[in-house]
Amino acid sequence: MSMFYHSTRSRNENVTSKQAILEGIAGDGGLFVADGLGERQLDLALVARQDYGANARLVLGTLLDDFSPEEVFGCVERAYGSSFDSPAVTPVSPIGTDWLLELYHGPTSAFKDVALQMLPQLMGIARGQGGKDVMIVCATSGDTGKAALEGFADKPGIGVTVFYPAGKVSDIQHLQMVTQRGSNVSVCGIEGNFDDAQSEVKRIFADAGLARRLSERGQCLSSANSINVGRLVPQVVYYFDAYAQLVRKGVLETGDPVDFCVPTGNFGDVLAGYYAKRLGLPVRTFVVASNSNDVLVDFISTGTYDRRRPFMKTISPSMDILVSSNLERLLFYLSDGDCELVASLMSDLAERGAYSIPDAMAERLHATFACGRATDDETRSAIRRCWEDDHVLVDPHTAVGMHVLGQRERDGVARVCLSTASPYKFCSDVLAALGEDASGKDGFACMDALAELTGTTPPAPLSALRSAEVRFADVIGIDRMGAYVEGACERAFS
Ligand SMILES: *Cc1c(COP(=O)(O)O)cnc(C)c1O
To answer: What would the pLDDT profile of 175-211 be if each residue is shown by its tens digit?
Structure first.
């Protein structure tokens, strides 16, 4: 029992990992971190011998040490026992002389499944028997909403409500959400864009009247977004497991260095890699790959984070983001846990829209992190090149990573690019990148054309959408979202 969590911005309040998972965000607006991270180094030789489940138990048991071994065992079994379509869960496969870490074999075909199949298990235990009913409320630009629905569907005592911007998600993403099964789920389109939905969800969380009415019925609201410790920790596992796979393939000897290239939005995925490094994984460099929303590339290059720039809509929409929330945790660790400094940088960001880190911190940043960007055209070229040169079909997010990796000089160190979604989630953009005409084709026509052209097979849950029943057709104005959440609570918890 050593891992206590506190805010990145102060050490006033120490909580267990169970409390951190239930609360999501610290009272002062900071993110939960543990000073003890890295005190215990994982045994790489052991990791290399173990399968995904055993490595998940090792990592979770280390970072969430108020969960008993039996609890961790059950969580891992329920999250990964049968819901991924690869026995390896996150298999590593070759692409040219590099490697892809395939994170999209879960039920919704995006890497968010790895975390969102686990978070509901952890929350279920943290909530305990007879705790309040918890309604997860989530605004989504596409991937997170479906992964949350699938993870929380029919979880006792927990419900989930997802708002998506009507007409602004892909055909396939839309069908994935509105056909979701489960008695505790609600899905609703809103008239507006993702930012409108997100702002209103934040307002709903802060609505004291609503909180009181729900509390009288033994209910409360919570979020499942990527700053939750319960989403971060499960992602640490696949960095270790990828290393183990490469050792077993004879590509690495235990202890050899490795580089990871990570298509990045909110900085959750790459931060999990940094946690793995702190726990003893011999990573030389993390390459942060951005699309045209390249605020992180500028930050890593200059030490100044400046969100005052236009928001670009790209063909890798899950990385369209101007404020990468999880970066706050890296600032905490790079400053050796200087909460005061982190708090002042975050207040600069809130007040001025920008902050700069001290030189010593920038030096430590550069020792481990590199970066690069890809425009939409470069992303399309990368999709085409991966297909033509290596016969590997990649989605636009992965292609951003492959473009950035391709720009870097190669030396002897093994390189792994994280592959974050199935290309079949973004059929029309992938088809167009391969030089086919996708205009006027709906999602399924694109899916068929892509399968025919490449001889690859769409993931079964995506093909099955053809015959799935649409359960949720509501589209509402922003002003009705609060009332919708109350209705969703009544339906889920009656
Ligand atoms: C969410 C997402 C990302 C970005 O991951 P972060 O943890 O936000 O950096 C990349 N690719 C896909 C497909 C995603 O869904």
So the answer is: 999 999 999 999 999 998 887 888 899 889 889 999 9
Residue 394: what are its φ and ψ, rounded to 5°?
A: -115, 155
pLDDT tens digits, residue range 249-259?
A: 999 999 999 99
Lowest-pLDDT choice from 64-68, 101-105, 116-120, 221-225: 221-225
Same fold, 92-108+230-464 and 118-225+465-494: yes
Alpha carbons 130 and 157: distance in angstroms, whole number: 9
Quote the crossing angle between the two packed helices 52-63 and 229-248, to the nearest 10°.
140
Q: Which residue of 397, 419, 426 sits with most ligand 1 atoms within 8 Å of its CB, as the best mutation to test the pocket?
A: 397
| Residue 20: CA count within 13 A, CB half-sphere | 28
Output 463-472 pairs: Cβ under 8 A, ≥24 positions apart: 465/172, 465/175, 465/176, 465/179, 468/175, 468/179, 469/179, 470/175, 470/178, 470/179, 471/178, 471/179, 471/180, 471/181, 471/187, 472/177, 472/178, 472/180, 472/186, 472/187, 472/188
CATH for 92-108+230-464, options being 3.10.20.30, 3.30.70.790, 3.40.50.1100, 3.40.50.720: 3.40.50.1100
Average model confidence (pLDDT) for the chain?
95
Helix (H) or strand (E) holding 354: strand 354-356
**Bridge-partner residues for 160, per DSSP?**
136, 185
Q: State the distance from the centre of ligand 1 to the C-alpha of 396, rounded, in angstroms.
A: 11
Region 118-225+465-494: CATH code: 3.40.50.1100
Give yes or no for residue 322 having a pLDDT over 80. yes
pLDDT at position 1, please?
52
pLDDT in tens, 432-477: 999 999 988 988 999 999 999 999 999 999 999 999 999 999 999 9
Of the residues 169, 319, 379, which should be mutated to test ligand 1's pocket, given the most ligand atoms within 8 Å of the CB? 319
pTM: 0.96
pLDDT band at 225 (very low <50, low <70, confident <90, very high): confident
| 54 pLDDT higher than 70 | yes
CA distances from 148 to 273, 323, 487 (A): 22, 21, 19
Ligand 1 binding site (Cβ under 6 Å of any ligand atom): 110-112, 143, 226, 263-269, 318-319, 397, 420-421
Given a cut of 70, whether residue 165 has pLDDT beyond it is: yes
pLDDT in tens, 381-410: 999 999 999 999 999 999 999 999 999 999
Question: Where along the chain do its domains lie?
Answer: 92-108+230-464, 118-225+465-494
Q: Which residues of 356-389 are buried (b: 16+ CB within 10 A; e: fewer)?
A: ebeeebbebbeeebbbbbbbbebbbbbbebbbee
Helix (H) / strand (E) element for 309: namely none
